[in-house]
Amino acid sequence: MRLIRFAAAAAASFLAAGLLGGVSPASPSHAADPVTVSIRPDAMHVASALGTAPTTAYCEKHYKIACYLPGQIEQAYGLPALYRRGVTGRGQTIVIVDSYGSPTVGHDLAVFDKVAGLPAPPSLTIIQPAGRVRPYRPNSNREGWAGETDLDVEYAHAIAPGARILLVETPTAENEGTTGFPQIVKAEKYVISHHLGGVISQSFSATEETFPSRASLLSLRGAYIEAAAAGVTVLAASGDSGAADVRYNGSTYYLHPVTSWPDSDPLVTGVGGTQLHLAAAGPPAAPTVWNDTYNVPTNEYIVGNKGPNPLAGGGGKSVIFGRPGYQDGVRQIVGDQRGVPDISMSGACNGAADMYQSFAGQAPGWYPTCGTSEATPEFAGIVALADQVAGHPLGLINPDLYLLSRLRAPGITDVVSGSNTVSFRQDGRLYTIRGFTAGPGYDLASGVGTVNAPRFVPELACLAGHRRGTSLRQAAARCSRA
Known about the structure:
Elements: H1 12-17, E1 44-45, H2 56-62, E2 67-68, H3 70-76, H4 79-84, E3 93-99, H5 105-116, E4 124-127, H6 140-159, E5 164-170, H7 181-193, E6 199-202, E7 206-207, H8 214-218, H9 222-230, E8 233-237, E9 260-261, E10 269-277, E11 285-289, H10 296-302, E12 316-322, H11 331-334, E13 337-340, E14 343-346, E15 352-357, E16 365-370, H12 372-390, H13 398-406, E17 412-413, E18 422-426, E19 429-433, E20 450-451, H14 453-465, H15 472-479
């Protein structure tokens, strides 16, 4: 599932720095002339509700796939070592942007925290700066967003348990099309201008080519330009269909590789998906690119057939944005275009995250849940930890990620296995969209890789603190020893 938005503005300073990248001559095209771009969250339930949080052994036995409790994901990234040093996100605020929100988010987070052994966040605040959200009435759209909201809040908090959570709800409706996007832009601008948080998490995306024109997309970028100028980090999910994605009608797929927005914006950090391999027994294996397209049990529990269905982390080359300066070192991979994702976190369905929800319309209980909607709030938590160590918000971190990767800093865990090639049946035919394969260094399936948090957090914080007064390369070399 996915969604998107942008806002207008000028950014001469970023253009001069080569951070915005050029604009490709290619423009979105359509078989028709739609004005609607589907707005959908990037999260999927693997199974029906359970009365207790399922263990890995339970999921492997009953679903033939893995699922993980919050503590297992924390352990996988080495987070307890940071928590023992008092690095919990204390003093920081994670901003989560979702349409509609969840009517039970406070209760659901409390249940989640009790089972996971987590403290309550210092605060969970809900604001609606773009307009009042209509009262909750169960339907597929509202239920999807409610589940997305619960997932975002629960896993941002799981990674940074000491951070404040600010949930920004907007009244955007899927059938409002492009008229709904300015509401999200307005809400994010409000957050930025009022200095309400240091990192913004967006678990939504939409295919670049679904926009009626290039100009219609570029007219929605203002919030990201303002965020970069204000030192606010903005994250976005890279999508859940691998190298494929749906057309403007939300149901049929493009038959060529596509990428999504806003993760493709050079001022946004695109977050892809990996698969953790944390068996119920035995040592963990190295993470791989998330791709459940050909996994029969996953397809059966998510889609209701044996597959294949496009279930993989999004990634590819933008048709809107040229290569930004911070990707010059990986031009052999991205060419002249902006490449995504930038980095990845856990998002696989075979390795789903346990979340709790209780809103009307779906059975209350625990659901193994997956997608880059899981990965993005997780990385928002990582950024909040680094903000705490640095003593201030880090702002645009993309240049730092690529420098740390090129220097093979210990905080970057390279993902070298897997691809985001996907297959699907459409119009009675089987199609395969050739994606991108992981390899050493940066790739269009996993970005620079994933994180070894006890090293990555201080490295990122240190690098941000040395951006002035020394070259970024010297700073990165120094901070790789942090």
